[in-house]
Specification:
The complex is a heterodimer.
Chain A (H helix, E strand, L loop, with lengths): L1 H18 L8 H9 L24 H8 L7 H14 L10 H6 L8 E2 L4 E2 L4 E2 L11 H21 L1
Chain B lengths: L1 H17 L33 H11 L12 H4 L12 E16 L2 E19 L3 E10 L15 E3 L3 E7 L5 E8 L13 H4 L10 E9 L3 E10 L3 E2 L6 E12 L2 E12 L10 E15 L2 E14 L5 E15 L2 E11 L8 E13 L2 E14 L2 E15 L1
Antiparallel strand pairs in B: 1-2, 1-18, 2-3, 3-4, 3-5, 5-6, 6-7, 7-8, 8-10, 10-11, 11-12, 12-13, 13-14, 14-15, 15-16, 16-17, 17-18
The chains are: A mainly alpha, B mainly beta.
């Protein structure tokens, strides 16, 4: 039974290491680009505060407007519906007098309202204290292997 | 033989959960007459790093029993690294890892993903019996942006809490702290997406703020008041909220606790409307009751007010009623009904239903399965969603 448990545990580790990055975030930026025929693909910061992705980060004015019109993660149809609603309603999320869709098509930022006659845009929020670190996509696997190796060394020490 | 298997089993669990939200915060401990949290947790209002006593209770009260021994010594396996390393009395350490397999359906689409919710290392050093230095650092794949240390778009280092504190009073019933801390408000629990936590922005995932707090714990009364100076892991300064958050809880009977919470903050720029300042209120009541050892009822209701210059004021409410049934030690069945309306006159009433089970299968390990249905009204839209969540949580 203990050998079975050991083998099952190691299999479980391997399985999760393999699948951990297999379930990716949908390509919303490219879909926005194609739906609106933009000259350039928008970045994640269009909807995600500070460009930080993940649940709970769609808090830019434009992102909030999209959420208010039914945008949901992983649902391409909801993105198209929300864009259509913003177009029809001529929504102006940053209140600068120019609609969000018009600003996107003009390669402008619908989250930034120029103040004082258009000379001083509002700075977007940014999370974090220090610069970007590492490539990270393999960090989780590396750390997992480190933990496993540490556990194995503890086991050897316990047997000695 | 069993210890060897346990080493491999836990190593695998830690590895897979590291490939990756929230530590321990269990308001249903009131069933064991634990109305306050400071006996088991370094944080006086609960959650996260465990004390040695808390680790022992994790073995004797939380985990499923696999033997008939009544006098089994919990100390060794409940300790840090399963007792493999003897820690000095002045040092607390912990490592929490949580991962989630999520399947969600909304509208015509579905989303299945593996989420690394938490991989946090926590430690506390006590100096001269009174002074504490407490900090956590962790890794997160996505989410928890407000707790970020690094500025990566994803795969970030996070520090959810870090503070200095001093125990005051003959029986150390007062704790004064300064640093980044969980906001003292309402019922502290691990369900950070529940509306009472999300819409008051008082969850223990990433809603911590920097500031100073005073906490008091006694048999009948506990409370904490925190002056909020802002989240210094968010820039520029104009987005940082300043204000206060506080709660006060009273225990009128052995397994009954009732309390009030209050929060008020101001920021020069609202994240959702950067050109405008914002005031945010949340004030509410909460309670926990265990009529029998098997059952714990928890409830919270909060009044919400968000006032952004140039926008209409948003008055609203968020509430929940939750039941935890533990028919056998370690196995919990959970049911929650929640509701919210964050903008009377604009939004409709939203309804959420949670059902699930949590199994503390072994010391240091628990599995959780939740099914969540939500019918949520936001402005002119109403969305129904269903989510199935499978979580694995383990700690060293």
């Amino acid at each position: 039974m203990n050998n079975t448990l050991t083998r099952s545990s190691l299999f479980g580790v391997s399985f999760f290491l393999l699948v951990s990055n297999a379930l990716a975030t949908p390509g919303f930026p490219s879909l926005v680009e194609s739906e609106l025929s933009l000259v350039a693909r928008p970045g994640c910061e269009l909807c995600h505060s500070g460009g930080v992705t993940g649940r709970g980060t769609v808090n830019t004015p434009f992102g909030k407007s999209m959420r208010d019109r039914g945008l949901s993660a992983g649902n391409d149809a909801s993105l198209k519906t929300a864009l259509a609603a913003l177009t029809a309603e001529k929504t102006d999320s940053d209140g600068d007098g120019k609609g969000d869709i018009d600003e996107l098509k003009a390669d402008e930022d619908p989250n930034v309202s120029a103040a004082g006659g258009g000379t001083t845009p509002v700075e977007s929020p940014e999370y974090g204290c220090i610069g970007r670190v590492g490539t990270a996509s393999s960090a989780s696997r590396g750390l997992a292997l480190l933990v496993l190796g540490f556990a194995l060394s503890l086991r050897r020490r316990a047997r000695a | 033989m069993l210890s060897r298997a346990l080493f491999f089993f836990f190593a695998a669990l830690f590895a897979l959960t590291f490939v990756t939200s929230e530590a321990h915060a269990y308001p249903w401990m009131i069933r064991h007459e634990y109305t306050s949290c400071n006996a088991c947790h370094a944080d006086p209002s609960g959650g996260s790093l465990l004390t040695e006593y808390g680790r022992a209770q994790g073995v004797t009260l939380l985990a499923s029993k696999w033997s008939d021994k009544e006098d089994e010594d919990p100390g060794k396996i409940g300790g840090f690294l399963f007792g493999a390393v003897k820690m000095p009395e002045t040092l607390l350490m912990g490592f929490d890892a949580r991962s989630l397999l999520l399947h969600a359906r909304q509208g015509g689409g579905s989303d299945t993903r593996f989420v690394h919710m938490q991989a946090d290392l926590q430690a506390q050093v006590t100096i001269a019996d009174r002074f504490r230095v407490n900090a956590s650092v962790g890794y997160i794949h996505q989410g928890a942006a407000a707790a970020s240390i690094t500025k990566n778009a994803d795969h970030r280092l996070v520090s959810r809490s870090h503070w200095l504190g001093v125990d005051v009073g003959e029986d150390k019933s007062w704790l004064i702290r300064a640093g980044r801390m969980n906001l003292p408000f309402g019922i502290r629990s691990i369900e950070h997406t529940m509306w009472v936590r999300r819409d008051t922005q008082t969850d223990i995932n990433a809603a911590q703020q920097h500031g100073a707090s005073v906490a008091y714990n006694s048999e009948k009364i506990r409370g904490e008041f925190m002056g909020i100076l802002g989240n210094f892991q968010l820039s520029p300064d104009a987005y940082r909220e300043r204000g206060y958050s506080a709660y006060l809880e009273y225990v009128p009977a052995e397994k009954l606790a009732v309390g009030v919470s209050s929060l008020l903050t101001h920021a020069a720029q609202a994240i959702t409307s950067p050109a405008n300042p914002v005031w945010r209120h949340a004030h509410g009541i909460f309670g926990r009751y265990s009529p029998t050892k098997m059952l714990v009822l928890s409830a919270e209701a909060d009044f919400l007010l968000t006032s952004v210059l140039t926008e209409k004021k948003r008055f609203g409410i968020a509430g929940m009623l939750s039941a935890d049934l533990e028919p056998w030690q370690g196995l919990h069945f959970l049911a929650t009904i929640e509701t919210k309306n964050t903008a009377f006159g604009t939004d409709g009433q939203s309804l959420g239903l949670w059902g699930g089970a949590q199994w503390f299968v072994l010391p240091h390990v628990d599995l959780r399965l939740d099914a969540v249905y939500r019918n949520e009204s936001v402005a002119t839209t109403r969305n129904s969603s269903f989510a199935l969540l499978t979580q694995l949580h383990a700690y060293l």
